[in-house]
């Protein structure tokens, strides 16, 4: 009990020990016998009375033992296990205190002790590394920005130095602070010589000297100024750009001046302007420039309440010149005509070349007779014989006239009205001038309406065929028919053939109409032949436009085969004047058509201006005398003579003759005496729908009977 108290009590041996946590402690008595152990294991409890430390280990402990807390820590092997030991003598108790830790647990004990410090140290190091990284990144960015800025500044400096433009920096008094190498030449100038000198002392900036004050106020007011200057007496042009530069912590403003030589650009712009506004062939203002000039003239006339005349010119039959002599020759003709017109209008008007062989003239006037004199003078000027490349040409022109503000209030309206009047001059025979009026406008609008209605009329049946009989002059017997086209639609009512055929010719729709006439005419001919039991003939009109393509051969062959008719009963009629104008182009196709077995007829013979020599070239078998000669045969000796001469000439050439427009018996009698072969006109029959033509074949009531008359040779 005393021993236990001494060990565990308040003044116990255990309380006197100064031992760290988790350390094994032994109390050894005399001879190295163990009296107490912590922790107390089962083996120690059982052998505590006789367990003792070996003498060698006890001796080494006694050697290093000390009193109090001053004992050394040393390494020792206890019971074969390496340990770290601290021994202390407790003389008042006659004990030796041995505190030891196995060497294998020393590191972990140390780690546990320094764990908090280590964590704090690691955290400190991590934060330090992060701060260092952030500082390094910031410094890197600053360094990169500095290097980039220096690089950009270097590039900018090189760019300014290598620039082909003159770059100058001046102070607020326009004295030079910096100038690149292009300033005053390609060689870098002596900066000491330039600095402080007014920039206007050097070219090309000297051109700004007179208005530098106004330029400076403009720069300050708007933040910049740009302008162009041409040096007097030369074609050199410069473009200047001036911008202000504000200096920090200074009230003064510097200026950057950039000067560029734009002479080549100006030349290019002038060339482009010339190409865009003037005709390359004649050098005259083109359509675009004409519109601008006329617009300005209209504005001036409006301001002064004046009058303006516009003349639209077109050379007559110029296409024939191109087709005959070639386009290069035609271009030379246009140049000559343009020179004539320019001399004719120099004193009072403006001439423009619209396109091809079309010209435009506009001028101020006060009385209409002034326009008439100008138009008549132009016609006479153009009509003067033209000698070109050894060829004598006779050229004429047609003119359409419109007036401001009488006819139209704007440029487009004036040109449109003049074009309408020009078309009327062409229609009336060319080589004349025509003033625009409301009637022409009305006619043109109707023409447009017809043009719009034709395609639908062909599909709907409003465009249809009628047939007028062709009768033997001697007996009045029906020999065949002529197929004629008619137009009658809800929008326009009945439209005359002259009207809609002219429109179809101009628009090209005549080709579709011609094919329709071929197919329907041949089909109806087959039915009429079947009804009468006779080889009746059918004459179908053919436009020159249809003859412009080899497709017409296939179309005619298709119509013949589809109807199943004998080709010899089909006649194609071609107007004389149109044939003569296109003889070279259509002749090969006429030969191919003739080879199909059909016959060709020249319509309206005697009204054209072709040479009679063409008759020997055309593969035609019939001439058709125009009704203008038939109408007055009974009262006009001249018309009767022409009709007789044509009949005699045709017979001499082994051709048949058809006289159209026979309306009374007197005309029929005369034609019988002249030996005409076939007659056509209201005396025999008016143009009839197919059903009525069938009825005509079944009766002879409408065929007049005349006494036989002797033929006049």
Provide a descriptive summary of the structure in words.
This protein is α/β, with parallel strands linked by helices. It folds into 4 domains: 2-107, Beta-Lactamase; 163-266, PAS domain (Beta-Lactamase), CATH 3.30.450.20; 279-436, Reverse transcriptase/Diguanylate cyclase domain (Alpha-Beta Plaits); 508-697, EAL domain (TIM Barrel), CATH 3.20.20.450. It is 45% helix and 23% strand. It is built from 23 helices and 27 strands. Strands 19-20-22-23-24-25-26-27 form an 8-stranded mixed beta barrel, surrounded by 5 helices. The longest helix is centred in the N-terminal third of the chain and has 60 residues, at 103-162. The protein starts with a helix and ends in a 16-residue tail after the last helix. 29% of the residues are buried. Mean pLDDT is 85; it is low at 708-713.
Briefly summarize what is shown:
The chain is of the alpha/beta class and 713 residues long.
Give the key terms.
4 domains; single chain; elongated; Beta-Lactamase; disordered C terminus; 713 residues; Alpha-Beta Plaits; 23 helices; eight-stranded mixed β-barrel; six-stranded mixed beta sheet; alpha/beta
């Amino acid at each position: 009990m005393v021993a236990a108290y001494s060990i565990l009590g308040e003044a116990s041996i255990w309380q006197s020990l100064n031992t760290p946590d988790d350390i094994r402690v032994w109390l050894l008595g005399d001879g190295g016998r163990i009296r107490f152990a912590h922790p107390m294991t089962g083996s120690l409890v059982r052998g505590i009375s006789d367990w003792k430390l070996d003498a060698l280990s006890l001796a080494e402990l006694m050697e290093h033992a000390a009193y109090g807390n001053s004992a050394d820590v040393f390494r020792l092997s206890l019971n074969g296990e390496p340990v770290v030991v601290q021994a202390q003598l407790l003389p008042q108790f006659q004990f030796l205190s041995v505190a030891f830790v196995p060497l294998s647990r020393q590191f972990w004990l140390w780690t546990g002790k320094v764990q908090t410090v280590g964590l704090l140290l690691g955290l400190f190091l991590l934060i330090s590394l992060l701060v260092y990284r952030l500082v390094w990144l910031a410094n890197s960015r600053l360094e990169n920005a500095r290097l980039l800025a220096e690089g950009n500044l270097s590039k900018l400096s090189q760019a300014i130095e290598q620039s082909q433009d003159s770059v100058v920096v001046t102070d607020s008094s326009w004295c030079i602070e910096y100038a690149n190498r292009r300033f005053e030449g390609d060689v870098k100038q002596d900066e000491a010589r330039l600095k402080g000198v007014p920039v206007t002392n050097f070219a090309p900036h000297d051109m700004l000297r007179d208005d530098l004050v106004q330029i400076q106020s403009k720069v300050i007011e708007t933040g910049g100024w740009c302008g162009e200057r041409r040096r007097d007496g030369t074609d050199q042009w410069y473009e200047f750009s001036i911008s202000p530069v504000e200096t920090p912590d200074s009230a003064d403003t510097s200026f950057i001046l950039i000067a560029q030589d734009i002479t080549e650009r100006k030349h290019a712009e002038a060339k482009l302007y010339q190409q865009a506004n003037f005709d390359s062939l004649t050098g005259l203002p083109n359509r675009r420039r004409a519109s601008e000039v006329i617009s300005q003239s209209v504005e001036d006339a409006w301001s002064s309440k004046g009058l303006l005349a516009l003349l639209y010119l077109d050379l007559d039959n110029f296409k024939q010149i191109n087709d005959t002599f070639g386009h290069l020759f035609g271009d030379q003709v246009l140049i000559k005509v343009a020179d004539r017109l320019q001399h004719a209008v120099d004193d009072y008007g403006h001439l423009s070349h619209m396109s091809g062989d079309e010209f435009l003239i506009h001028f101020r006037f006060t009385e209409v007779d002034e326009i008439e004199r100008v138009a008549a003078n132009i016609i006479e000027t153009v009509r003067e014989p033209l000698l070109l490349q050894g060829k004598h040409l006779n050229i004429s022109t047609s003119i359409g006239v419109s007036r401001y503000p009488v006819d139209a209030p704007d440029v487009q309206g004036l040109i449109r009205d003049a074009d309408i009047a020009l078309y009327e001059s062409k229609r009336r025979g060319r080589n004349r001038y025509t003033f625009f009026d409301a009637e022409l406008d009305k006619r043109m609008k109707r023409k447009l309406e017809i043009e719009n209605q034709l395609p639908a009329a062909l599909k709907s049946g409003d465009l249809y065929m009628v047939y007028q009989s062709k009768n033997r002059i001697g007996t009045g017997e029906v020999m065949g028919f002529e197929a004629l086209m008619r137009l009658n639609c809800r929008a326009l009512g009945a439209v005359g053939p002259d009207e809609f055929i002219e429109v179809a010719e101009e628009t090209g729709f005549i080709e579709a109409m011609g094919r329709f006439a071929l197919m329907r005419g041949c089909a109806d001919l087959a039915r009429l032949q079947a009804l009468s039991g006779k080889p009746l003939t059918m004459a179908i009109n053919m436009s020159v436009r249809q003859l412009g393509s080899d497709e017409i051969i296939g179309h005619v062959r298709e119509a013949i085969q589809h109807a199943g008719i004998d080709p010899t009963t089909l006649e194609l009629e071609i107007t004389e004047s149109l044939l003569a104008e296109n003889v070279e182009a259509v002749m090969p196709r006429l030969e191919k058509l003739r080879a199909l077995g059909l016959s060709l007829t020249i319509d309206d013979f005697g009204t054209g201006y072709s040479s009679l020599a063409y008759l020997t070239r055309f593969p035609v078998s019939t001439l058709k005398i125009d009704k203008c000669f038939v109408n007055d045969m009974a009262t006009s000796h001249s018309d009767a003579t022409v009709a007789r001469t044509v009949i005699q000439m045709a017979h001499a050439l082994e051709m048949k003759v058809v006289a159209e427009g026979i309306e009374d018996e007197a005309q029929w009698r005369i034609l019988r005496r002249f030996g005409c072969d076939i007659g056509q006109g209201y005396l025999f029959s008016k143009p009839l729908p197919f059903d009525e033509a069938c009825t005509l074949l079944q009766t002879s009531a409408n065929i007049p009977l005349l006494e036989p008359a002797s033929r006049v040779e």
